[in-house]
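If your schedule permits, I should be very grateful for your opinion on a structural question. Kindly check, if you would, that the fold set down in the tokens agrees with what the sequence suggests. Thank you for your consideration; the sequence and its tokens are set out here:
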Amino acid sequence: MKNIKLLLWLPFVGMLLFLPLANRVEPYILGLPFLLFWIVAWMVLSSIILTVIYRFDPDNKGSDVE
């Protein structure tokens, strides 16, 4: 769990480095063009990744506010 903050690179890589590969209209997923679906999917995944990092980061132990 020491390197849990390295997960912060995943949204950056997914959104910026692989965006040219996802820059197309077809296939439509959930009625969205593929590029829009790619961006929405990474927004959702980024939230999940940030939640995982917050839960497992040792710096956040004992900082719960009541």
Summary: The longest helix spans residues 34-56.
